[in-house]
Each structure stands twice: as C-alpha cells, then as structure tokens.
Amino acid sequence: MLFWSAVLFLLGVAAFLDAMFNYGEIFRKINSVLFLLISLAILVRTTTKIKAGRIEKYEKRIGDLERKVTDITRTKEKTPY
User: Would you say the pTM of this structure is higher than 0.70?
Assistant: First the structure.
C-alpha cells in the first residue's frame, strides 16, 4: 500500500510539472489513466482489507464464545444439584 501511495505521489508530481512546463497532451492522458487505475487498485485493496479485518474480528469473537460455552458446560458438569 505504501508503494502504491508513493507511485500516486510521483504521478501527482509529474502532473504538477506537466501543468507548469506543458509537456504535452499524450502525457496528460497517460498520467490521468495511470492515476485512475492505481487509485482504483488502492480502493479495492482497502475494501478487501476492511472485509478481512471484519471477518477476523468475527472469528475471534466466535472463539471467545466457544471458550465461554466450554467453561460453562464444565462448571455445570462439576457442580451437583
């Protein structure tokens, strides 16, 4: 993610230099397409990481609940009525 953020930064610097020195129309088209694709990739990666984090949180919660259930069942089996 840091790599792609650096690439976006460099594309932004290139766009700034293009605006200052007017390198040409082809450079603007290529730069804008690259900027679009890389930002889309970062958006997709961030979304998948958020989903993976959510799933990891659910798995941890399920593990905690399973441990609590086994603790409760063990204490019920040990204590006579």
Answer: no
